[in-house]
């Protein structure tokens, strides 16, 4: 097998770069691609300083080759604001989809830019270039938006990005253990606290204690099931101690859209839990979710990662000084179930060291079926697994006596695994029952 390596582009690579860019870009982009190739190539060769880029600080180009055969290029552009653009990543036709050439080249470039402090990578891909678009989605890039006839008439350009997190950030996200559950009376004061201490009163005139009172009055009408009564459902995001960290008020509407208002949380992890879990709770009530919100950067990332899209901008709709946004999630288009997992467990699942995922028997967990594909989500990554089997037990102890604990929590013996599971789920949750999902990654 020929040796594969990645190196910086050299002067004698120019013709290869010019040819591959012209051939790959012409179907999707107008303009002089050889002139484009010349500009970025010679900028790299001359030291990487972009003399004409307004925000660009560095251009770096790498070549991947097998033996003496060049098979692809990637060019990365460092920006003043700490982001890096991938423009372009191209693999020769004969090597596309074979032996992970593109994956290897992208991983190399991401390591390079992360070592230089990149907080985000981004790129644009023609919507019609389906293989490239699917490739970037598999690598964790998130849909940011689309522009019709952007670089070429009739060709829609898709904007993608990927955030890079430090080990400290990932550990902080992993420490959160949050469940989304239907409202119970014991959570009432927590609902008031989260809503009134959130940014809702700042962005939405009229949000005060009486407004929350009206939410509960609507909740008391829930048994009517009559949309013209504007009945409400309430879901809360709670930590393992039962503290309310997030609140979603839910109003099913005529025609089967479902309005989520409020959608408030005391931290980004609780907001992410609500956005990830609500579709599974609400499918029986309608076909589309929508919410009115003035989102933070973190909340916008969550909405985009979870497949929500921006429906409208409404200047002054709820407050004369703010532009409210409507975000929507068409659940008929997003049928795959999602499960939130900690990053360390995600890595073990995707590497097949952890094949058993244990949950308590919430209603949305009990509905999981053999053969179902599930999207796993962490604070920074996502992947798809298939359910091979589902088994149920009454307690964690009984489950661990029957299952291989090394497949549940690699590196832990049964007593350690039992202690960890009971630390995550208090006794009242364990009494719901225990569900074991036998899963495998979907490549």
From TrEMBL:
One GO MF term: acyltransferase activity, transferring groups other than amino-acyl groups
N-acetyltransferase domain location: 4-165
Protein name as it appears in the record: N-acetyltransferase domain-containing protein
Organism from which the protein derives: Candidatus Magasanikbacteria bacterium RIFOXYD1_FULL_40_23
């Amino acid at each position: 097998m020929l040796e594969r390596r990645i190196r910086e582009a050299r002067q004698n690579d120019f013709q290869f770069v010019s040819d591959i860019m012209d051939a790959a870009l012409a179907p999707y982009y107008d303009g002089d691609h050889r002139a484009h190739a010349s500009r970025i190539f010679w900028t790299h060769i001359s030291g990487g300083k972009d003399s004409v880029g307004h925000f660009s600080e560095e251009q770096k180009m790498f070549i991947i080759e097998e033996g003496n055969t060049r098979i692809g290029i990637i060019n990365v552009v460092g920006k003043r604001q700490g982001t890096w653009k991938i423009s372009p990543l191209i693999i020769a036709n004969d090597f596309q989809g074979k032996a992970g050439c593109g994956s290897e080249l992208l991983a190399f470039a991401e390591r390079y830019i992360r070592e230089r402090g990149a907080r985000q990578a981004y790129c644009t891909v023609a919507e019609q270039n389906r293989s490239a678009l699917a490739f970037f989605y598999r690598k964790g890039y998130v849909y940011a938006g689309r522009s019709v006839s952007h670089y070429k008439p009739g060709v829609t350009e898709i904007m993608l990005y990927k955030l890079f997190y430090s080990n400290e950030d990932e550990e902080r996200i992993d420490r959160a253990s949050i469940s989304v559950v239907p409202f119970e009376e014991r959570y009432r004061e927590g609902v008031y606290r989260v809503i009134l201490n959130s940014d809702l009163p700042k962005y939405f005139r009229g949000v005060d204690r009486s407004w929350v009172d009206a939410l509960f009055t609507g909740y008391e009408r829930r048994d009517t099931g009559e949309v013209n009564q504007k009945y409400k459902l309430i879901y809360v995001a709670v930590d393992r101690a039962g503290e309310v960290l997030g609140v979603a008020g839910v109003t099913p509407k005529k025609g089967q859209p479902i309005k989520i208002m409020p959608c408030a949380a005391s931290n980004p992890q609780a907001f992410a839990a609500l956005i990830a879990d609500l579709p599974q709770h609400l499918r029986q009530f309608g076909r589309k979710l929508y919410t009115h919100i003035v989102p933070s950067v973190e909340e916008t990332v969550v909405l985009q990662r979870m497949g929500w899209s921006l429906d409208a901008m409404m200047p002054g709709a709820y407050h004369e000084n703010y532009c409210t946004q409507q975000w929507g999630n068409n659940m008929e288009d997003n049928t795959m179930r999602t499960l939130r997992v900690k990053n360390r467990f995600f890595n073990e699942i995707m590497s097949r060291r952890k094949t058993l995922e244990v949950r308590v028997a919430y209603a949305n967990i009990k509905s999981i079926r053999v053969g179902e594909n599930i999207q796993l989500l962490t604070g920074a990554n996502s992947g798809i697994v298939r359910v091979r089997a589902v088994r149920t037990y009454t307690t964690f102890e009984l489950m661990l006596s029957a299952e291989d604990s090394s497949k549940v929590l690699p590196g832990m013996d049964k007593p350690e695994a039992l202690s960890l599971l009971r630390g995550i789920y208090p006794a009242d949750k364990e009494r719901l029952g225990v569900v074991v999902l036998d899963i495998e990654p979907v490549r």
